[in-house]
Amino acid sequence: MHAPEPSEAYHAQRAANREAKNAAAPAATPIRGAVEVRQAYEVLGRHAIAGVRKGGAVMLPNGPQTDALIEAGHIKLQPAEKKPVEKSEPVKSAPKKGTDNG
Amino acid sequence: MARTILKNCYIEINAADFSDHCSSVEINASKDDIDVTNFGGSGREHAHGLQDNSFVLNLQQDFAAAEVDATLFPLWFNETEFAVKIRPTSAVVGATNPQFNGTCILLEYSPLNGSVGELSETSITCVIQRDTFVRAVA
Q1: pTM (two decimals)
Q2: N or C: which end of chain B has fewer CB within 10 A?
Q3: Which residues of chain A lie closer than 8 angstroms to B14, CB-CB?
């Protein structure tokens, strides 16, 4: 048993899809796995950064622009909030019954 | 229609508001003039070519941390592309307060410039890259 030959419409659709894929601008298809990392920075200088005044926190993407702001002394990376480690009670195992010594 | 008297222009360089250190601003939008004259007419015909835009800012020099020199020198030295945003007033962007922005580079920077007794000012030309020059109204 051979599968039936695909129809002309099927081939036309595939050709259209292939053309659309080739014509798509590279920027329109983001690189798989590339994620913009944004971090919180504290504004140090007198000048507002992205509308945030001194003492405030501003979220900025990692990159040379942010590096330049750090170098100029406009901002500094906010230390990540340390969550207190919850101490867990040691779990006591139930006493073994019998003489199960393996 | 109301005339515009420049009193509180908004100038942002690499996300930092430098309105209080800037004394003059100039936005230059231009396109290359391409001569497309042919034998079909008796006069020259021109066409728009590539954009070549820039912001020219006059900044009052300040060598303190997080001020003019500390901001501009790394941008020039490290060859970093940075955003420049300019509005006629510091009010929010709108139809009557358009924001002109672009991604720029700094090809020349003169950290110290002036004569005895003068205010030290530095004029920078932020060359806008590619087609990033935008007039935003919202």
Answers
A1: 0.75
A2: N
A3: 65, 68-69
